[in-house]
């Protein structure tokens, strides 16, 4: 690296930094965000959290109801993820370059995945809420729609990555398409896929809270209800329950991931 | 001499696959997930659901949304302005998050920080990550009032948690030789970070930050709808829950889709360029 390239690098990073600063300034202007004020509210908010967001004795009376809703939310996210995984498996096999049937189906599978992934879960839940009404199925379908897109992309990537040589080997022995997919592609990618599925279960439990607030189902609805009633002790208890659930799921999936990968 | 014992099934066939721990755990994971899924459908609350008509209605709604998108309650300029707000929220949360995460991840990387500091930060980050973003935003909204401050602070927490993990992993992959060489010249900790770690990981850090920006755009839309943070998400919420205007919902969905699609194309390029071998989470 001579002096000239170093100077050029410095110049480039200067321009880059300038662009970032301009963008930051523009974003603060458009969102009327005041950096100093925002930072100043952090200690204030923390103080508020530690003085008001406490689990009190009487909030424990609500615990059975909360746990019931929490169970509904967990079941909703697991069901949405596993069923989405089955659908994504088909789409992934169709969409991957190593195992595609023909170009048209491959593009079609990728297109479906892309649309379902890029329409945010919020939009899905609001669209579905209109005709499905306030029940678990709405939340389930909203999570399902978002998960299919994400898992399909992940599955396509793992299939592309893992199975090139074994597909070639099996093709050379004259195996049929279904034999290749069933005996080489899926067994080889299964650990990777299950790891993605577990990751998605965890993400979906967190997303289910959001979907719940919008569609009036599960733990999100319960949270929203007590939040609007300003009953912060119960809000604290619900938050605590969600945190514990997510951490437990995280620990389980980390263990499984460590063993299978 | 004793013959090697071969495991056989009851009918005398030899086990072709010798099961190891990984296979067993894998099998049980799938079985448990399948059972939980079946149980889930029995547990669901089906209040007020008429599946047949709901599906027909949704199909009709989707057709109206996607084939006849129009704007009724605001004009095109306003739509761009609202998208700008959402992008701004996402950008601010990402950039502030990246700066904070950079310093935190210096404390988390195993090769740069003492073990107890790194472990404390990791536990702290895990707890932050476990609270859903929307809850953070709503909790901050009580203290800071509804608006961009609460939304950005709430989104900031998850951005930091995500980026700390990514950044510290990038730092841990820095070649040990660089540290040794710098240390032998008498460089202190900050010198090592500034002229050893930062130059060799800078592009990674940037790509991770962009990947987070892509995620944050989706989150910002969600926060607009669920936590009243403003932007295109809030318009989406109003159009679908107050005006029941499917054509407008369609227009807003299209605009979100286009932005999200552009961001995805850029981030896929970045991934292919900087992380050719690894799949990223």
TrEMBL record, chain A:
One of its GO terms (molecular function) is ABC-type phosphonate transporter activity. Keywords: Cell membrane, Membrane, Transmembrane, Transmembrane helix, Transport. GO terms for cellular component: plasma membrane. It is found in: Cell membrane. InterPro entries: MetI-like, MetI-like_sf, PhnE/PtxC. Pfam families: BPD_transp_1. It is a multi-pass membrane protein. It comes from the Bacteria. Residues 70-253 form the ABC transmembrane type-1 domain. The chain crosses the membrane at residues 74-95, 205-223, 229-252. Signal peptide: none annotated. The keyword Plastid does not apply. Belongs to the binding-protein-dependent transport system permease family. This is Phosphonate ABC transporter, permease protein PhnE. It comes from Ureibacillus yapensis.
TrEMBL record, chain B:
Residues 83-267 form the ABC transmembrane type-1 domain. SUPFAM superfamilies: MetI-like. Keywords: Cell membrane, Membrane, Transmembrane, Transmembrane helix, Transport. It is found in: Cell membrane. The chain crosses the membrane at residues 24-44, 79-109, 121-144, 189-211, 217-237, 249-266. The keyword Transmembrane helix applies. GO terms for biological process: transmembrane transport. It is a multi-pass membrane protein. It comes from the Bacteria. Belongs to the binding-protein-dependent transport system permease family. This is ABC transporter permease subunit. It comes from Ureibacillus yapensis. The lineage of its organism: Bacteria, Bacillati, Bacillota, Bacilli, Bacillales.
């Amino acid at each position: 690296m001579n002096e000239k390239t170093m100077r050029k690098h410095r110049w480039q990073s200067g321009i880059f930094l300038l662009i970032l600063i301009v963008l930051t300034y523009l974003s603060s202007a458009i969102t009327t965000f005041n950096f100093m004020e925002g930072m100043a509210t952090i200690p204030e908010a923390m103080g508020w959290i530690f003085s008001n967001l406490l689990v009190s004795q009487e909030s424990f009376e609500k615990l059975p109801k909360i746990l019931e809703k929490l169970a509904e939310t967990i079941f909703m996210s697991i069901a949405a993820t596993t069923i989405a995984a089955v659908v994504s498996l088909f789409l992934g096999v169709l969409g991957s370059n190593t195992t595609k049937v023909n170009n048209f189906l491959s593009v079609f599978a990728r297109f479906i995945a892309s649309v379902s992934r890029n329409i945010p879960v919020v939009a899905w839940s609001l669209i579905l809420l209109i005709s499905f009404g306030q029940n678990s199925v709405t939340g389930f379908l909203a999570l399902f729609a978002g998960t299919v897109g994400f898992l399909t992309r992940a599955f396509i990537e793992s299939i592309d990555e893992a199975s090139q040589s074994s597909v070639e080997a099996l093709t050379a022995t004259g195996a049929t398409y279904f034999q290749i997919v069933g005996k080489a592609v899926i067994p080889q990618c299964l650990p990777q896929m299950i790891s993605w599925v577990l990751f998605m279960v965890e993400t979906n439990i967190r997303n289910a809270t959001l979907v719940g607030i919008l569609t009036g189902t599960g733990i999100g609805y319960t949270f929203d209800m007590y939040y609007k009633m300003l009953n912060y002790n119960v809000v604290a208890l619900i938050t605590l329950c969600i945190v514990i659930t997510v951490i437990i799921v995280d620990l389980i999936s980390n263990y499984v991931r460590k063993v299978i990968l | 001499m004793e013959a090697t014992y071969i495991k056989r099934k009851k009918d005398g066939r030899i086990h072709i696959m010798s099961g190891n721990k990984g296979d067993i755990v894998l099998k049980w994971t799938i079985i448990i997930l399948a059972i939980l899924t079946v149980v889930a459908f029995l547990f669901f609350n089906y209040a007020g659901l008429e599946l047949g008509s709901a599906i027909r209605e949704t199909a009709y709604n989707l057709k109206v949304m996607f084939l006849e998108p129009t704007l009724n309650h605001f004009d095109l300029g306003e739509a761009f302005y609202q998208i700008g707000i959402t992008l701004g929220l996402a950008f601010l949360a990402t950039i502030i998050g990246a700066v904070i995460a950079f310093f935190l991840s210096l404390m988390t990387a195993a090769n740069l920080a003492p073990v107890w500091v790194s472990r404390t930060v990791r536990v702290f980050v895990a707890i932050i990550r476990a609270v859903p973003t929307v809850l953070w935003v709503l909790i901050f909204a009580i203290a800071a009032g509804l608006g961009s401050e609460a939304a950005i602070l709430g989104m900031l927490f998850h951005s930091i948690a995500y980026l700390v993990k990514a950044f510290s992993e990038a730092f841990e992959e820095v070649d040990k030789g660089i540290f040794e060489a710098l240390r032998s010249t008498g460089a202190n900790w900050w010198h090592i970070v500034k002229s050893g770690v930062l130059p060799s990981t800078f592009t990674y850090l940037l790509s991770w930050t962009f990947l987070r920006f892509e995620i944050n755009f989706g989150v910002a839309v969600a926060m607009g709808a669920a936590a009243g943070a403003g932007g295109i998400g809030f318009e989406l919420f109003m159009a679908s829950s107050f005006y029941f205007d499917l054509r407008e919902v369609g227009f807003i969905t299209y605009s979100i889709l286009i932005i999200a699609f552009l961001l995805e194309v850029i981030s896929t390029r970045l991934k292919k360029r900087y992380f050719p071998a690894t799949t990223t989470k």
